[in-house]
Amino acid sequence: MSLLEADDFYSDWYGWLTNQLGHTFLGLFLYVTICLLHYAVVGEYPYRAESWFIIVYGYLFFEFALQRGDKFWDSIEDGLFVSYGAGILAMTFEEVEAGKPTFLGDNLEFIGASLVVFIIYLSVGCIIRIRRSKNLS
What we know:
Low-confidence stretches: none
Radius of gyration: 17 Å
Strand content: under 5%
Oligomer: single chain
Order of helices and strands: HHHEEH
Structural class: mainly alpha
Distance between the termini: 22 Å
Helix content: over 70%
Number of helices: 4
Largest sheet: 2 strands, antiparallel
Mean pLDDT: 88
Shape: flat
Number of strands: 2
């Protein structure tokens, strides 16, 4: 398997879990990278929503335009986890003052609710794949 081949890990719970965690961390990494690059060039952090849209739509373009395979739902699900990784930072932190490198966690309630949804989604995905693996054996 290559990184450019779609794989939904149909009956592999561990592969699916690590794949989705990897997509989540990719979203986190891309968001931080865009913010730091924008700050280095412009002198202030970018608008949160614009950064999120660039990451999500850029990743979905990559998934549908460049990736091989016909697993439509896998691409949507991978995009959802990239979106979550970037979105948790975009929705939680904001710049304190334009031109200064400080930021503030202004929506901490969002983190708790998001983590609950995230953990439930990951748990259900793992349970589905564990059941599938038992049906295949």
